Structures
1.
Amino acid sequence: MESKLIMYEYTDFDEAFLRDRITEFRSQIARRLDGSLTEEEFKPLRLMNGLYLQLHAYMLRVAIPYGTLNSRQMRQLAEIAERFDKGYGHFTTRQNIQFNWPKLSDVPDILTALADVGMHAIQTSGNCIRNVTADHFAGAAADEVEDPRITAEIIRQWSTDHPEFTYLPRKFKVAVTASDTDRAVIRFHDIGLRLRRQDGEIGYEVVIGGGLGRTPMIGKVVREFLPKRDLLAYLEAILRTYNLSGRRDNKFKARIKILVHETGLEDLRTRIEANFVQQKRLLPDLDPVKLAQIEAGFRPPAFADKPVTRTLSPAMRAFADINTAPHKRADHVIVTVSTKAVGSTPGDVTSAQMRVLADIALRYSHDELRISHEQNVVLPHVHRADLPAVYDALRDAGLATANVGLVSDIIACPGMDYCALATARSIPVAQDIARAFADIDAQRDIGPLKIKISGCINACGHHHVGHIGILGLEKSGVESYQITLGGDGTEAAEIGSRAGPGFAHDEIVPAIERLIVAYLDHRLDRSETFLETYRRLGAAPMKAALYGGAHDKAA
Amino acid sequence: MTKGFKPKVATANHLIEGDVIYFTSEGWSRRIETAAVARTAEDAEALIEQAGQCPQETAGASLIDVDLSTGIPRPVHFREVFRTRGPSNYFHGKQADHV
């Protein structure tokens, strides 16, 4: 079976850099333990290496560039989870993985194990350019202009340890898609790039100033078409403009979205374009040799031509209907593996499951896996002939839940079960909603529905772009959950509107049930989705379902 | 007890393990039941200062409100209740350690 690394491979320089950083951090930990460094001095150093201190333990956030893993890397994550953690890892909405229980003294060994497979935890925290995310169907999607990971990789190399951008006003997130169908939520990133073709030339639509958090904003198009060769000069111009003008006086106003909002797009565009002219003089165009090397890392695998002989059982067909998407080759499919079995924690995968996924990827998906921002795992290149074998292997590992895009395929941040910033729990709410709608036929009847839950205003659970968003807050000393309606993270970007007063922890699931019953009562027919019904009728019938006649007064 | 003052204990995370610890008269403990309780504002000031004396063991230290109606300190805020227990999705953390 082939086992090739279908992505960028580290050079000797990268490898040495990574090992040096681990040695440095090992000595910083030793100095913290012997008392030479205070906690105050040590905290920024550990954060630079992706190590947070959460409610019950440390948490190590590991970057998965553009969400792509090979089987060897997945196996190593399984090994780390087993050896240094509690036998599982948590995949996040930023296509990363988090380990919830590492000991401080083990972290250098964990980082060494990661470096052995070309991974690290650098720039997963702090006011720098974070892990670049991309469409999780990249390289496989039928509708893409080219593999967006080529661009993401160029940006990864450019932004890693970039000397000017390690102390930005605030963190900075970049997402890339290459399809008109936006699966990478690009309009809610500091910079969103959409590859597009104009007059036969490939370039980018550049979006800036999107974001979620306490001030959700939809990104604005700052450049309709940027030729590909100008990518880094233009990014450099945006980042320099932001670095100079972004507000450092107020942490809550320091993201580029506030700069766009306060300065106005036109004014900011003028500044960026002026800076771009300078950058064009200073920076060479993308080096075609280097570009060719990167492109080679993302060449499509050698797809097999073979007949599809086995017919699918009803269970397999149900799975294929819901969890597969069209591949650029008609004889292949993209399989999304849901981490959201009833009662499970969204995004959590055990070591045993990671190994099964690695085996399946190696055998049936050209050694590739993806982590989606919806906290699922994607097998991007599965031949239709192999679908029964893939299904059987997934089912045996408890990974064949056929709910992708349905009511129980919920995004949930770790919330107050783990996170030190959280104001309420998210995970039990997701679990209880999934239990309330456990019947898969009922879920299919309800149809496409995105529920997204955040345990605080920072919105890691993307609640603003959930068709139904849930935000956990504290109100009068107890957990309280606010519902937003009509959010949309795709190209038809919308920020959800707050429905009304919040619900207590034991009231939130019944409230969601009432909402869904109201949708079923009001939809024109089965083909009209929750979001379409909401857009057609507005919030009134949903509010009536949530609050009865009292909502006008209560709101 | 000072009028209007809510009793407090000092808590932190263990430097190596990262788990939740409480300051007692004999140093740090993993159980809130054994925590030293400050009943006045002056006691609380002294407690947090004392708790900060051994920084090699801890990552950060802060005071939290406790309820003493059962005779032993119990946290008041739900966040602190969770910190005495562990996450709700798995039987991990303190709830498992205490078995």
2.
Amino acid sequence: MSATTTRTSPQGRTRATPKAAKQGSRARSASVASTVVMIVIGLGFVVPLLWVVLASFDTEASLSVAWPDRWSLGNFSAIWNAETTFRPLLNSLILCGGATIVTMCAAILCAYPMSRFRFKAKRPLLLTVIFSTGLPITAIMIPVYSLFVQVNLVDSMGGAILFLGASSLPYAIFLTKGFMDGVPVEIEESAWTEGAGVLRALWSVVIPLMRSGLAVATIFTFVSMWGNFFVPFMLLLSPENLPAAVTLYTFSSQYGQVAYGQLAAFSIFYSLPVVALYLFLGRSLGQGFAAAGGVKG
Amino acid sequence: MTTDAPPVAARAGSPAPRRRRSHLGDRLTLSRALPMVPAGLLLIGFMLGPIIYSLYLAFTDSAIRGDGAAETSFVGFDNFMDAFTDGDFWNAVGLTLIFTVVSAVIGQNVMGMLLALLMERANRVVSFLVTSLIIAAWILPEVVAGYLLYTFFASEGSLNTLLTSVGLPAQDMLFTAPILAVSFANIWRGTAFSMLVYSAALSSVPGDVYESAALDGAGPVRRFRSVTLPLMRPAIATNLMLTTLQTLSVFGLIFIMTGGGPARQSQTLPLYMYEQAFSYGQLGYGTAVALLLLLIGAVASIVYLRLLPEEDKR
């Protein structure tokens, strides 16, 4: 009862005091509460990440997050060889780098006519592209595998690159066309009047003007391929072809007893490139992506 | 889609200079469509081809070993009938729905919205650090995320260390409720996407709308329900659709954490499909299950598209 009276009495007085002061204090307490909730959520998210960092420096790492008794680089040196680490990472680079090049070249070429010319099928074509971005690739992997067996492409790096490239293409076309629409046509027109051809105008006028957008699309494509497990898991078989995503899975099944410290160290090596790319691009990676893809789908 | 509008308007406004010597804004001719050929071939060969082939494969007894391997024959709707009468199939459908609703529709969406709202109010440094962590969880490769959350939920894992250190009873979720463990894992991994979508959408809501609502005496909850939510409806519907489709096809995360087990208790449709097609070698049957998975995704998309406001639907 007394609590309510003490609460109502300042309320009564606010009639005299400026309203802004009350709102200011309320905003401040909301800010403090928000910060506290944010920290709690952050703690929930950080624990698994903390495990992989701490365990990688602990040769006797267990499943639980723990401060290493002795900090050591033993795990890193144990996997510091071609067979465990470098070849899978190189394979990942060939697979994802190759597929990213395939995707981005095809996407830029395809986006240009879609962005610059008029045609009746434009809207249906764009809608088809948008809908196929939502197609769950997991659901078509069995027929893809079956087809690859028939044309003898299973376990071929080239085949996996082409499929991975094609599977990222709808989204890359959608993103690239969006960025290309943002390049004003007028600048290009002067290139046209000076006699530049289609490819020339695209290469020396349009592409330089959409560099930052292309960087976002390229890095996003690469990062999502780098993390892909199911496609190389299905399409590549022989150990010398396997990318890091698949060898990390065989890491635990191969030797029975799992050396968790080494697994953590390998996970760090494998994750470093995408984390570095993310740091390089900053939030524009996520935000450009979310703004382009999520909000105005 | 909306990005088409300005060039069209410009074209309509100034037709004369455009027609003079420029070719831009002109009709697409065969030679101008030539750059689209590589993308077209890739999409037809590697996307459309397999989809059409799956429509055939699902009606055959194609297999890796046994009868269907030597000579594939047409079996009509047998694969679908087998699926509908198989208890394991319905188990997988149920688990897929639980997984999708708990981790995507509720988990990622509510968490993403909450974080987007918190980001606007919380201390800047804290919210930068926390959102960086959340985005890091999203950017990590799927297999790495699978291992990290396996160790987190394992009986000797981090979660139990934390629980017992504060005197709470230990859990063994990977065995007692594996579908919840993988759902939480998917929330951990996927929240960043919803958070970024919603924070982009929130920042496009003009501030004076809130001010006038506040002047009219609307409290924070009322403002959220009557101002923010309606304005964000397109973003919410699109985000729900995208996260649902992503979650329906999650394979690696569950495969690493539980492998679908124990005793099929976390075997969602992609894992069931994989088991049938590759462990048991029944490619035809696995493809039929994959088509049913696509059907679920299509139905969900249609439902979400109906949530979109009329003017955004086109």
3.
Amino acid sequence: MNTRAPAVQARQLVKTYPGDVTALNGMDVTVEPGTVFGLLGPNGAGKSTTVKILTTLARPDSGTATVAGHDVLRHPDRVRRAIGVVAQNSGADPVATGRENLRLQGRLYGLRGAALNRRVDELLDRFTLTEAAGRQVKGYSGGMRRRLDVALGLVHRPEVLFLDEPTTGLDPEARTAMWDEIGRLAGEEGLTILLTTHYLEEADRLAERVAIVDRGRVVVEGTPDSLKGELRGDAVHVELREAPGEAGRTLLAGALTGLPGVHEALFDGRRISARADDGAAAMPALLAALERAGVTVAAATVARPSLDDVYLRYAGRRYAEADTTDSLALAGGAR
Amino acid sequence: MSNAMSQTWYMTQRQLLVFARQPAFAVITLIQPVIWLFLFGNLFKKVIELGGFGTTSYLDYLVPGVVVMSALSSNMWAGMGTLEEIQRGTLNRFLTTPVSRAALMNGNVVNNGLVTAGQSLIIVLLGLLGGADYPGGIAGTAVLVVAAVLLGTVFGALSNALGMLVRERESIIGINTFLLLPLTFLSSAFMAPSQMPGWMRHIADFNPLNWAMVAGRSAMSADPDWGAVLGRGGALLALAVAAVWLSIRTFRSYQRSV
């Protein structure tokens, strides 16, 4: 383990927004320096609120947090000098050019003259924006705008970079490019990255450690592999023609987990997610058991466990479902 | 230059850029005063014969009225810009940098002040081209411009506060359309106070728009009443300070609500 002080440490953050919307409910986050940490969860889980508190935008109702060794409540100014923030809407000035946006951002951190020019050129070059540097940002594509947003967050060489939903709204091609870019950033000396995402794939691909956030707190944390490894064997997904009732579920669960090599069966509407030591080998017995129980199977698949399965296991519901429910419940509310 | 001051200047520059990069917008904000100036100037030309205007040319009388009215109508939309900055995420981006919080607010005030001053000067010059006469000269014009800037600051700050508070365009549009014409017609913009019905005159006495017009008009006349100029100007200054204070308070409450 790393012995240096954590780059980010939040303890028991609680935040309630007007209208009794509990955004955070005892949030704990610890990020080791020089690593990429992913906060994964659906919209409304509390990821953005956590980032807002850690970046000094919002104050928690209770709890403490330090970033780069500075207390966010007592020394917000020191925190601001140490962090770079790429928010969901980073708000580059659309009327100004890419270069003008970067120059202004640099000046706010006290960069001047030749040092400022050099840094701006460097960033434009690195994010392949040199050609577009003199054009107004309103003409940029989504991917270009996002690259500029990241460049804006890096202008003062921060110790900790916050990326809030860095690829939301990007087309697949721009998303892959952004992933490559974040991957390169992660390799840079000393930079700590805290990223939030509601894409399981993104957290899996970019983050060394992932915390799954649900309803304002972390439900489980670990490396993507260890989280997936905790789910022994393969994931077997079965889709039934009709959702079983309460009694039917108990009956089916008993029948399935009684099979050799099958460990767990979670129900979610018409879907059953079971885990088996060897999914392919367990499948025939599993289907036979279901048939004996008198339910009709619509589809069945075997897969290596994904973060989606981890999410289901710890948050108690399927990822996509949580996403819609929460975003509906919190529509118009603070995130 | 101190840090907060240079940052205020960066923030001002940034906003001026919006104006400079959108010449169509700048032209549109000037078309309206031109219409007021020449349409009303011609339509009401003869009311000067009623007396009480303190001049023999209606245009002389009208120019300060249009300057002040334009200051109101351009500044009352300031909240729309602030709202856009909030929604685009620009304001939050700045708030996560070490930029002085005062500079963020001051940038708005200075930018609006500069734009109002420029706009006022252009209207005065257009009036001059149209044949208006300003016996108060440059000093009188300067007083008018300062009065217009102060009035603009009042309504710009209130509009910003409203934008941060309600966070929806419709409210700003609604309130502005509701306020602009009554505030203008309940002032001495187009008509000499002595020709107004008594109750209107009394209301006008409490209308900050009217304070700016009285101060500017008096200073631009052949025989300024400096007591009236200072009184009205002082009241405007106090109101501007109060409005800016209110918008800073609202800004703090915005920060708490993020």
